[in-house]
Amino acid sequence: MSTNPSTIRLAVIDTDSSFVTVLTKRLEAVGWEHRVAAGPLPLEDVVAMKLNLVILDPDVLGADGAHYLEQLCGGIPGLGVIVCTGRSTVAQRVRGLRLGADDWITKPCHPEEVLARAEAVVRRRKRAQVRTEVGPLVAGELEIRADQYQAFIGGESLGLTRREFELLQVLAEDRGSVVERERLYERVWGYAMAHGDRSVDVFIRKLRQKLQRRSQAWRYIHTHFGIGYRFHPEPVDGPADADREAEAVDDAEAAEEAVSVVAGADE
Predict the structure, then answer these.
(1) 143, 153, 159, 184: which has the fewest C-beta neighbours closer than 10 Å?
(2) Could you tell me if 148 and 122 lie in one domain?
(3) Beta-sheet pairing, 228-235 with 218-224
């Protein structure tokens, strides 16, 4: 493995004794620091343990599984989260990834695959943390703070989720250039986009709504049909006016397609 084992510290939240036994033996063999829990770890404990990663089976938490997953993903910047659970529907997997999970593994699975995926998630998180050393990016009325995993307008937080922030950050880093949907997905989600997946469009729509609510005089994200998106702040009274109707149509289509994909997943 390319990552130094001593740098990886993780928690496994699971009650599947067979899976946990096999996985912990492998973790001990490679020297990764780990803790096993049969229930949710308080977020303050996760922070105090300085974890790189949490491997979670939401089924262990019952009806609270999705809520806890969202708390983990949204509440601790830089923390990688992998869902590792039994059989699930496409809709469940889509929801989990949209709540912020970095990856989803279906049991039964080989421990080597779990470790490889864990290593990949930690690598991506470390690359993202390097960007936090750069100062805030200011564009229009928007201030993007990588050190806080958040964006601000007039000093007030936009309340972005981790995925929304990462999309904004990737677009802003390539300011003025069109970033293809597939490239956005790979850089934010960490793997290739499946055919028909509209997650990028849905998150862009949510991101735009938050930006427009707080900064109505500016247009930040522009749509390039069939290609992707471009970050280029422009006053609403300027050239951005011509884009507004097209963007509204694109957002509506993205929402409809996303709903149809998720709704059809259980058919």
Answers:
(1) 159
(2) no
(3) antiparallel
